[in-house]
């Protein structure tokens, strides 16, 4: 070790025999008091509360010094993550399983997927709801708005239905957001004869198709630009989505556009 750190053997033993300096002795005494305050709190206090208690006892010490000594001696607040479960909510989602994997989506209008993403305009956020056909990756409906609510997702769904006019039996898959679990949205799906499907708990990759679309859109036409007005971002969306559907080639579709892929299937 002496060779590793370039220290002579005599110097090392001289350091071992040397008494602690005044600062080190103060740290030892302070660490003892910190441990006592921490134990008195049933090991609940972190450094801010320990520091405040030491001040109340008349000790003048900096809060950073208290935090450093607590880290050095492994004195930590007892913090637990409490997870709450709502039985009624669990039962509510139990009747909406992930049904999209039961359908191969070999043809258009068999499985749609939907989601919402954030778009920054100035210093605030706007919201974009999109409905995507899983077979061809085509955007079949979308809605842009100021609020992330069921009205936003309903507009996107209704536009998709108006564009495609699917027959009953279509599966519509989303995450477990309240914008898709709301009674108004579920009632509209039932009215249209559409079967609802949702992500499984903890399986964020269940909606990977539309997440891939959002990634492509943001990296290709959003990243690096600063939008200050809604009309600017709407102009980009009205230009990009038709391009995405009609012209942009997809590796997952053997390098053709969604529109071309659907024509090939037809």
Describe the structure.
This protein is α/β, with parallel strands linked by helices and 266 residues long. It has helices at 2-5, 9-17, 22-40, 47-56, 63-72, 87-94, 150-164, 178-181, 183-192, 208-222, 230-246, 258-265; strands at 111-121, 124-133, 139-145, 171-174, 195-198. The protein folds into 2 domains: 2-72, no CATH class; 97-265, Ribonuclease H-like superfamily/Ribonuclease H (Nucleotidyltransferase, domain 5, 2-Layer Sandwich), CATH 3.30.420. The chain is built from 12 helices and 5 strands. A hairpin with a 5-residue loop joins strand 2 (124-133) and strand 3 (139-145). The protein starts with a helix and ends with a helix.
Protein traits:
alpha/beta; Nucleotidyltransferase, domain 5
Question: What's the layout of helices and strands?
Answer:
Elements: H1 2-5, H2 9-17, H3 22-40, H4 47-56, H5 63-72, H6 87-94, E1 111-121, E2 124-133, E3 139-145, H7 150-164, E4 171-174, H8 178-181, H9 183-192, E5 195-198, H10 208-222, H11 230-246, H12 258-265
Parallel strand pairs: 1-4, 4-5
Antiparallel strand pairs: 1-2, 2-3
Helix pairs in contact: 3-4, 4-5
């Amino acid at each position: 070790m002496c060779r590793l750190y370039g220290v002579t053997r005599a110097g090392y033993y001289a350091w071992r025999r040397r008494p602690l300096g005044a600062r080190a002795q103060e740290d030892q005494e302070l660490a003892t008091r910190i441990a006592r305050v921490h134990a008195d709190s049933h090991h609940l206090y972190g450094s801010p509360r320990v520091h405040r208690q030491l001040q109340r006892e008349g000790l003048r010490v900096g809060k950073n010094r208290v935090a450093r000594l607590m880290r050095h001696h492994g004195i930590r607040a007892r913090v637990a993550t409490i997870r709450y479960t709502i039985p009624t909510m669990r039962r509510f989602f139990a009747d909406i399983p992930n049904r999209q994997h039961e359908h191969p989506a070999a043809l258009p209008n068999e499985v749609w997927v939907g989601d919402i993403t954030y778009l920054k305009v100035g210093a605030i956020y706007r919201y974009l709801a999109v409905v995507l056909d899983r077979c061809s990756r085509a955007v079949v409906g979308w809605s842009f708005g100021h609020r992330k609510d069921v009205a936003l997702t309903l507009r996107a769904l209704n536009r998709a239905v108006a564009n495609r006019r699917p027959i009953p039996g279509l599966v519509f898959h989303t995450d477990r957001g309240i914008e898709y679990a709301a009674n108004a949205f579920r009632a509209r799906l039932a009215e249209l004869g559409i079967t609802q499907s949702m992500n499984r708990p903890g399986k964020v990759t269940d909606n990977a198709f539309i997440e891939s679309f959002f990634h492509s859109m943001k990296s290709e036409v959003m990243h690096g630009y600063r939008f200050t007005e809604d009309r600017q971002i709407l102009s980009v969306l009205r230009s990009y989505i038709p391009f995405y559907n009609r012209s942009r080639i997809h590796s997952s579709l053997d390098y053709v556009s969604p529109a071309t892929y659907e024509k090939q299937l037809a």
